[in-house]
Amino acid sequence: MQTTNPQSTATRAIFVRLTTEKERTEFYASLDGPKWWINGKRKDSDQGWVEVFRDSWWKCIFCGRDLAASTDALVEATEEHLVPRSLLEPNGVEPSVAHNMAACCASCNVLKGECIPAKDHPCWKSRQAYVKECYRFISSQRLKQYLRYRDHVEKVLRERAGE
Length: 163
Fold this sequence. Notes:
It is built from 6 helices and 4 strands; from the N terminus they run βαααβαβαβα. Helices cover 42% and strands 7% of the residues.
């Protein structure tokens, strides 16, 4: 089976974090094309998370971590709003619909936060392209964190090993 490198296609998006309602309203108004995130039925019950996780095959939509592999992984996992609630709600858009929801591990959720691709990036045209671009962003954030903490972790591990 041939695997594809997510880095091999299209230009990487610059991610932004909108902090004011005005920024969110203007950004949303400028998005062109189909709005895939408004499709699907609304998650409307306390048990709706089960549907979200089942639809994601109990795996993190970004890194593929098996969220059903352990109780800890499942408890820490979240229902990810792909397009953040903070962007949709001020624009009168329901954020908790099937196409905008996915299972996500805690670390990917924290690394993505409320960051979104720039409005002119073509990834906004499809859910699949959007998820791929978020995966790239999360991977770059993960690398930054690794580089930031690498020396400290190595030192602690050496100390624990008695070296």
